[in-house]
Amino acid sequence: MLYHPNNIIDLMRRRLMGPRPNQRRYPLHRCRGDIKALLQQVLILVCLVPISLQATELNNGPHPRPFKVIYKADYKGLPISATGIREFTLVEAEGEQPLYTLSSSALSIFAKLEEQSDFTLTDTSARPLFYRYDRTGLGKNKNLRLNFDWTKSLLINPDTEVSWPLTAPNISDRLLYQFQLQIDLLNTGPTINLGTTYRYNVQDEGTLKLYEFTVLAETDLSTPLGSIRTYEVIRSNDRPGRKTRLFLAPDLEFMLIRFEQTDDEGEGFSLMLEKAFIEDSAITASSRSDPKP
Prior knowledge:
mainly beta; 15-stranded antiparallel β-sheet; two-stranded antiparallel ribbon; 17 strands
């Protein structure tokens, strides 16, 4: 059973999001420009890498069970509280191809950012069906919806009715490529050769972009869950002057432990794992090596 793209918006509203988000704007006249940058970074960087707590088999390869992960953001030492949340859920289990949702959000007292991808899984590939982006409280509000019509090989904005061709079979949206990276790491790991590079085609409205991630080194990190062995993964085709590092734990199904990003002026941003849940069960220091099914 295939889900028609035109039905995804109604499904999302009924099962996940409820009414369309309130368009109220938060007062920003007393806020520094750094606050806007912080909230935008939290959403983007929470979404940059995959998170997996316990893999299950999907035909020929593993994928994670439903999870919820909470991160704390720090930006240039500013005393701003920002929380990032990422969730993976099964939305519709009927038919031969269940519908899944990956969502990420960033929240502070000033603003809220949300991003969502509805998709299906086949063997070791995630195929997008619907993408949603909502931003409120950061200057002008922004909302975007995109339908992936694979029967017509078109990407459609249902609000404007503008469409663009889907020119490759293996395409991700601006969020889903990180989940595809997660699947690829799970199928390659737990031991990954240093220098291994993963590449993804990402459809950003009418533009097809290439994203590359390279496994650089192994390192142990001190965390609330104890010392954890991680792989350091870098964005190898990042924009000039910016360095992005991700620390992923192979013993925890390549969960993101820490994220770091710096620019050519030495300014930095970091993201640290605070809490993680799998099917409503908290991951703790005692359970991290052997999560209960």
